[in-house]
Amino acid sequence: MNRYCILMVLVCITSLTVAQKSKVYRAENFLESGDLIKAIECINLAIDSTNEKSQKSLIWPQTWIVKGDIFFAIYQSDNEEYASLSKDPLTVSLTDYLKALELNPKSDAKNKIRNKFALLELELQNVAIEAYNSEDYNHALMRFEQALALKDLPEFKVDIDGIDTALVYNCGLAALKAEQLDKAIENLNIAANVGYGEASTIVMVASAYQSQKDTMAAINTLEEGLVKYPGNETIMTSLIQIFMDADKKESALKCLDKLIISHPADAKYGILKADLHNQMKDTETAIKQYQAVLKLEPENQLALYNLSVIYYNKGVEHLKLTDNVSVNDKGRYEQIVKQSEEIWKKALPYMEKCHQLNAADANVLELLKNLYYRLNLMEKYQAI
């Protein structure tokens, strides 16, 4: 081939390259003028992989920067016609910017899109928060993850430790709400390890394990949390609940004793301890514990009601002894009835006090009427 022919081939190749790059420039011009439909038409020609003329523009970072700009503009537009151009323009824009960076990370593409990434990341987080507040947790998680993907790029990390802990935490929280438990555990553990959210984050990790039916992992997480935050009330109450759910009542009681020692004026732990003893059929200890609560809070309705119920049920159980008494043993029968009445008399003042504090409670009213009836206090029975 003579020199003239070689020159002509080079001219043709160059003209083809310039022609395709001109499509990118035209797309950019249409974008600036606000004609997004024509902008997409031009950029699509520049990225048409079936067209040999597009081989150069396909590997040109500017092509994907412009395409990302177009789809970000689509996202921002209030024009319904433009909104129909893409179902998810934010994701397209993100993908395009990342493509530009991937094609030549050492080029000026990084500098060109640094600010674009910042705007996109901010918008992704705003959309994520809006989705989270609307209880669309899967969408929120997707957007938080996309924002995190940008923050995780080595070129754009801003935190000293290379981790945007707030964003990681938000990913974990959205994942937990979306019941994507593996993602929740992964992200929340990262946040917990650097102390973000302190005890509450550890409790959420344990909650995720519980949702996976991994009770031991949940317990281990909380116990490790207590090493980091000794005596933390939030962690301990969560641990108690897990022990109770797992029917590990003795372990729950040990935790409760520690909480009662450190929070002696907090009646709710005394009530919980009494409830546990009652569930364990240790009614005498339960009674003492409810009475201890009433010394702290004489008008604690839960303690009043539960204490009265214990005595009421004890009276009913004792009365069942009459089932085994001979019809000819009238004395024994009357003795058991009298003993049952003495037990019900112990229940009465607690239930009367409870009714005095909350006359509208139907359960209280029903039990009080039963007590009046069993004790043959008919005037009081008729009065309520």
CATH topology name of the domain at 283-384, in short, is Serine Threonine Protein Phosphatase 5, Tetratricopeptide repeat
Distance between the termini: 116 Å
Order of helices and strands: HHHHHHHHHHHHHHHHHHHH
Structural class: mainly alpha
CATH class of the domain at 283-384: Mainly Alpha
Shape: elongated
Assembly classification: single chain
The overall pLDDT, averaged over residues, is 90
CATH architecture descriptor text of the domain at 283-384: Alpha Horseshoe
Percent of residues in beta strands: under 5%
Number of helical runs?
Answer: 20
Give me the Rg, rounded. 36 Å
Low-confidence parts: 3-17
| Proportion of residues in helical segments | over 70%
Count all strands and give the number.
Answer: 0
The biggest beta sheet is recorded as: none
What does this structure look like?
- This protein has 384 residues and is mainly alpha-helical.
- Among the domains are: 12-107, Serine Threonine Protein Phosphatase 5, Tetratricopeptide repeat; 283-384, Serine Threonine Protein Phosphatase 5, Tetratricopeptide repeat, CATH 1.25.40.
- The protein has helices spanning 3-33, 36-46, 55-58, 61-76, 80-83, 89-103, 109-133, 137-151, 165-177, 181-193, 198-211, 215-228, 233-245, 249-262, 267-279, 283-296, 301-319, 330-357, 362-374, 378-383.
- The longest helix has 31 residues, at 3-33.
- The termini are far apart.
